[in-house]
Input
Amino acid sequence: MTEAPKSDRLGSACSFEEATAPVNVDAILQSILGRGTERFGMAAAVLRGERIIAQGAAGVRKRGSAERVTLDDQFHLGSCTKAMTATLVAMLVEEGKLNWTTPLGEVFADTVKPMHPAWEKVTLRQVLAHRAGLPFETDGPGRVFNLLRAPYASFRSVTELMRPPRARLGTVPQQRLEIARLALSRPPVIPPDTKYWYSNEGYVLAGAVPEHLTGRAWEDLMRERLFQPLGIRTGGFGQPGTPGKIDQPWGHSAFVGKPIDPGSPAAQFPFYYGPAGLAHMTIADWAKFIALHLRGDPANPHCQAALLKLDTFAELHAVAPTTPYSRGWVMRGITRRVTGDAGPVVTYRAGWFISTSRWAKGTQPGDTGRRLWHGGSNGISHSIVCIAPEINFAVLVASNSVAIWKTRQAVKALIRTFAPKKLEDRKTTRPQDHDRQEYRGDSKQ
Output
């Protein structure tokens, strides 16, 4: 393994443009926020390789306050944490402590008793690809409803409704192990490895695997094995900020835009939820993790492995089998909503949605325009990342509001402005046509 990439180190293929300071995109974000600039804020970064070539911040930390969002602010990443959990698992695979085909029956043989027979042969790869048949949440639809109404519940009741039954005592790793016991003692929601079924519970269980094997908490492993080697200094878990102070962006209710104090129980997911979506950090620190995956992808013409081997990145980024839930209006709608494209097929692998798009297509033989992307939310904030390995390019946007349409517009605008343009497109396509076809969705992708 090579050493982790340093934030100030340039790759061998860097140009003069890449050696200059990042372009300020405050004005782009400001224009997208519009009147919302006094209601919430966002920060963004654009990567070429491991270097930030553009960055900016706009809006306010809290609705009704004068404190502006800055590039030093920390944002909740929600389900964009899942790729970090999968990366941690990959490290254990490389060390021989696990295998991608290790069955759950083997991992939890001594601790989960009785285990429903259907889980005994379900593999770690299937769990990380949402193909294990695990439910969406630890308490199913009832928990989703609880999360949605949490910002309106009383302080006395909200903490209880955010917790699953029988997981209210003990350390956080003990709670995750208890969730694994509950999940694996019941039959699957659907037969394993037959359909894609997005599961936050699956990633809670995935976080319990390294805890079970190492005796260390997932949070400690993340700091020691991922954050520290990458130089991520602001990484933490849960809602960032000091209770009662506006020293970090506050989240805002999805329904009425009400700012939520970071000390309020309504702002907090239970900590056992961490592997599924509780990481927070600055946009620049998040970019260090994204650069790890951008540069490690074998399709990147300037690929360079760090922390993991190239073969492991290929496993994490491989196109998964397509299933009925990988096609159709549901997944196409998610693709269009998050990235502005409507790719015909979307699959999921190890914390990444995977699809193709014309703007992401490289110039090497065999390039398909494959891109990796994900969105994340804790109900009061939203984040999006989109990686295009073939053109060595990525965009990250984070907001302290569930304004998905705004974060999507920011991603589109930054792609439109900074993604490499093909020579033939420059010669034959008018700017307005290029915008419509490459960044707003093309049915022929």
